[in-house]
Amino acid sequence: MNHSKKILRRAAVAALLGGAALAAHAQADYSVYGVFDFSYGRFEPSGQVRTHRFNSNSMTASFAGVNAKYGFEGGWTPGITLESFIRFQDFKGGRNDDDPNLSRNAFFSVGSNYGTVRIGRLQTFLFDATTRFNALGNSVAFSPAVRHVFASGTLEGVQGDFYWDRAVSYQTPPGLVEGVALNVMYSQGETDRRGDLSGASLVVSRGLLSVSLAAQRVSVVDPVEDPIKETTVQLGATYNFGWARVFAQYTQTDDTGLEVDSKIAAVGLIAPLGPGNVHLQVAHTTAKGPAVDRRHTSVSAAYLYPYDSVTDIYAVGMDDRVRGQTRGASVAAGVRWRF
User: Fold this and answer.
1) pTM to 2 decimals?
2) Rg of the chain's alpha carbons, rounded to an integer?
3) Rounded distance between C-alpha atoms, residue 220 and residue 288, angstroms
4) 175-181: which pairs have CB atoms within 8 A and are 24 or more residues apart?
5) What φ, ψ does residue 151 adopt, rounded to 5°?
6) % of residues, the chain, pLDDT over 90
7) What is the pLDDT of residue 223?
8) Cα angle vertex 238, ends 176, 249, to 5°?
9) Reduced to 3 states, what is the DSSP secondary structure of residue 207?
10) pLDDT at 237
11) Domains delineated in the chain
């Protein structure tokens, strides 16, 4: 017994010393961050009833998040990221009442010199490319590119959400090939509607020019609802001329489940004007199928004044037209604060 106790004690001491040595070569880090966007305006998408209300995503969807990671010797960095959208207009979390508590991102990650792996609820790479290569970023309310691809119905844009549950992704390390980033993702989707969801993107940046190629395939077979089988491909580009930064984007969907094909083209620019910047964006969509012939055009303009390094004051408007529907006109003014 005494001999066994000595062995256990030695093992415990060795483990403590090993842990202390490991901790000496590791570094913990965490951050709390987010965006608070609050505005008031008139909101009227084409064919819908206009409303006057407060809004939390006129320029950027409001959210708060926390990231914690632990850096080990050799470049290995495990971490966790938890983020949730916020609706100030009704003091609730999530984009709507159906969103989960951690509605934006919720994943574990492991970074290394070989790349980064993430597991959990993840933003799709198609959404990331769409928001990066248009002049109004991730404004679901006013960016024509984002609205047409993700928020104008399944007959026009992509099916499913732009956040995937039970997902795993891989991103190449920044130094693998200079200016080139490759990202891939796979997901089984929601637990009650299991499917096969896959996506990838390639972003190449050379000086003032950046181009992207993104694609995703969504396949969900449900015994109650209609099956989803859709493939989406998108090309994007942006170039900084100095006097203005211009954007171009083309997205094509092939939905074999609904028998609809759509083509979405968008162009935009950001240019300085006075103390702030003008943001302009136009998108046009044609969607065709045996029972579908839809044409949709949206034009948006915004002016952002940087009050300080973290606060923007803005005014934004959109003209939205779908053939055969009433014209929509939306306008809002608000403040965006980053932390």
Assistant:
1) 0.88
2) 23
3) 22
4) 176/115, 179/204, 179/205, 179/206, 180/204, 180/205
5) -135, 25
6) 76
7) 63
8) 105
9) coil
10) 98
11) 30-65+84-90+124-338 (2.40.160.10)
- In sequence order, what are the residues at sequence separation of 6 or more whose Cβ sits closer than 8 angstroms to the Cβ of residue 173? 112, 113, 114, 115, 116
DSSP-based three-state secondary structure for 133: coil
**Could you give the residue ranges of the DSSP H alpha helices within the chain?**
2-24, 125-132, 144-150
Contacts of 86 (CB under 8 A, 6+ apart): 34, 36, 56, 62, 63, 64, 92, 93
What letter represents residue 313's amino acid? I
Q: How far is Cα 10 from Cα 236, in angstroms, rounded to an integer?
A: 61
Q: How far apart are CA 328 and CA 43, in angstroms?
A: 8
Residue 271 · residue 277 · CB < 8 Å: yes
Contact between 245 and 239 under an 8 Å Cβ cutoff? The reply is yes
Burial profile 228-262: b = 16 or more Cβ within 10 angstroms, e = fewer? bbbebebbbebeeeeeebbbbbebebebebbebeb
Phi, psi (degrees; rounded to nearest 5) at 12: -65, -45
Tokens standing for residue 229: 């089988």
200 pLDDT above the threshold of 70: yes
Query: Tokens for 281?
Result: 């964006």
Q: Is the pLDDT of residue 21 over 50?
A: no
- Residue 170 burial (C-beta neighbours within 10 Å; 0-12, 13-18, 19+): middle
Tell the residue number behind the tokens 């997205």, with chain if given.
251
Residue reference for tokens 């103390």: 275
